[in-house]
Amino acid sequence: MEQTFIYVVPLLGIIGLIVMAIKSAWVTKQDAGDSTMAELAEHIAKGAMAFLKAEWKILGYFVVIAAIILGWSGTLVETSSPVIAISFIIGAVLSAFAGYMGMNIATKANVRTTQAAKTSLKQALKVSFTGGSVMGLGVAGLAVLGMGALFIVFYNMFVISTGGDVNGAAMETALEVLAGFSLGAESIALFARVGGGIYTKAADVGADLVGKVEAGIPEDDVRNPATIADNVGDNVGDVAGMGADLFGSYVATILASMVLGREIVSADNFGGIAPILLPLVIAGLGLMFSIVGTFFVNISKETDSVQTALNKGNWISILLTVAASYPIIMYMLPEGDLVLSRGGSIIFTKMGVFGAVVIGLIVGALMSMITEYYTSMGKRPVNSIIKQSSTGHATNIIGGLSVGMESTVLPILVLAGGIYGSFLAAGLYGVAIAAAGMMATTAMQLAIDAFGPIADNAGGIAEMSGLPKEVRERTDVLDAVGNTTAAAGKGFAIASAALTALALFAAYVGLAGIDSIDIYKADVLSGLFVGAMIPFIFSSLCIAAVGRAAMDMVNEVRRQFREIPGIMEYKAKPEYEKCVEISTQASIREMVLPGAIALLSPMIVGFAFGPEVLGGLLAGITVSGVLMGIFQNNAGGAWDNAKKSFEKGVMIDGVMQYKGSEAHKASVTGDTVGDPFKDTSGPSMNILIKLTSIVALVIAPHISERPHGEFAEKVNTELESKEITMEKAEELHETVEPLVLR
């Protein structure tokens, strides 16, 4: 049965890519506007490609060196293979390609959204969201196709061809090699996210501080030298960076579930691989229903809520995925009890697995809703920042920090409840499958997220082209919603990272041959504290990098205003390319050290102090990183929408305040502080969390305290004689790596 069903997964990925191509062709056919608009869009597209080429050149060296090391390490232990190097390269290439696809369509959709906004808000939403959905479907389609196809190859190579046990060392090798794909994807995602974040915020801060505050012109004014770099930054950071980010998240989540699924001996109709195959199938289903959900994102009137339209499409994709997961789980998993010896020999059923999927989807939806509340215009948190802007810059900063800190409470409670509930439903496998359920609708989540930067670019092009006021008003409506959806997307990503990291952590513990992490041990407790510190130094490096790059940008913009006469009178064109070059060079230079910390810290601790101390390090990084990510994302999003609220006017103490007022200037300061929070260090936290866990998973066989070959031989003997019992499982648990037994 599995010989045919296993091919369904890559087929679903191909379907997603076909739909993506159709939507991409539709966007390309739309009117790109007049020559001025086309020229500006071309500047943005060229700047974005210049950055990607510079980034890819550096990352190319990294990928080659890392692949050589991985290939060599694959020869050192029996549960790995030199093929892991090829898997790593494929993951890195597809991750980079996912980012490129999103950026390519975004730089086409932006100007077409501007042109569509000349006619109606409905058409502008259709173009911008279709552009976003191209990215969402492309990322998810590549992930499902890549993971599904490589699993088929490695399953046949290491298990079928050798006659190996699907629960033993043969499948462990297949999944260890597949982990290389995830490592490649997450490595590129980290550099793309950090580099893109530094780029976009350096340009944004320069455009804001000199353009808005000093020169008194809009950040998107054609006279602002940093405006092209700012619009390029929206693409390389919020589109290409986010695309690579969620591609890596998607892959890591599926991998974690598959690794834990190996530890379930399942008497199913799929040769015993149903628990391993299930996360892939759920991801494929989520991709299909995300396609369905995209067709429900529309409005009929100018006064209709864009946010409501996006929420409708999102909820439809979630509910359809839940409905379809039930029959698939009932069909694939066997009747009776399944036993997970990890975490106290948890006994669960396939209904428990379905319950975990539902819990994961609920947690994802709640995280998005909570984030939306804390970052939306008109809600209490943003209104509190607006009010505190009336008394100056300092109180605005205090208000934003307070909102960001407060916003960690509900998400953490939801996350804790989701972890505990999914564990009760199906043990650690339930936690992993809950993360897979949450990430199932990634295509829709990313479509909603990517539409925001497209709308932001569209507004910039409208401003620079001098289009009528109603055009900018329509793009501003989309942009304001885009700020909220971007924040919600980041909340969703950090929640998935927490669940995925826990599942990867559980998989690591098994492969590393340890039963628990004992914080009574001084070295383990030390590792925990060091791990909790890493997100702080990582954030510090990212924010400081933005600050240094922004200083260079500010000085360049001031120089151009000072040395090029006629800019303010529209008699001379600014040197946009100089600002683009500054952001590109700064981002490439500054992304190296944060990336090195994420990649090297688990390797140094693991090889120097052993697997248990590394476990402590991972626990510290996960908890601290989740809190830092939520705090920074929400504080930055709230500051941004507080600033945007002044564009239509806000009532403060009975007085209407608008752009240009002292309160608005204070809100610009808050937004400037929040920029690196929400677009550089904050969203990088989820990649940091998962990447360190994946690195630990890859090196686990090398630092394992137990011989895997001896374990597999003992288990296979017991299974063949059909004498395996829970008592025997507990006996084996004392001497060898735990296995899920039935």
TrEMBL record:
Protein localization? Cell membrane; Endomembrane system
Where do transmembrane segments lie in this chain? Answer: 6-27, 58-77, 83-106, 127-155, 239-261, 273-295, 315-334, 346-370, 412-436, 492-514, 526-550, 591-610, 616-635
| EC class of the enzyme, as a word | translocase
Which residue numbers mark the site Determinant of potassium dependence?
A: A486
Q: Name one GO biological process term.
A: sodium ion transport
What UniProt keywords are attached to this protein's entry? Answer: Cell membrane, Ion transport, Magnesium, Membrane, Potassium, Sodium, Sodium transport, Translocase, Transmembrane, Transmembrane helix, Transport
Name the protein family.
Belongs to the H(+)-translocating pyrophosphatase (TC 3.A.10) family. K(+)-stimulated subfamily.
On assembly, the entry states:
Homodimer.
Give the protein name, as stated in the record.
Putative K(+)-stimulated pyrophosphate-energized sodium pump
| Organism in which the protein naturally occurs | Mongoliibacter ruber
Q: What is the lineage of its organism?
A: Bacteria, Pseudomonadati, Bacteroidota, Cytophagia, Cytophagales
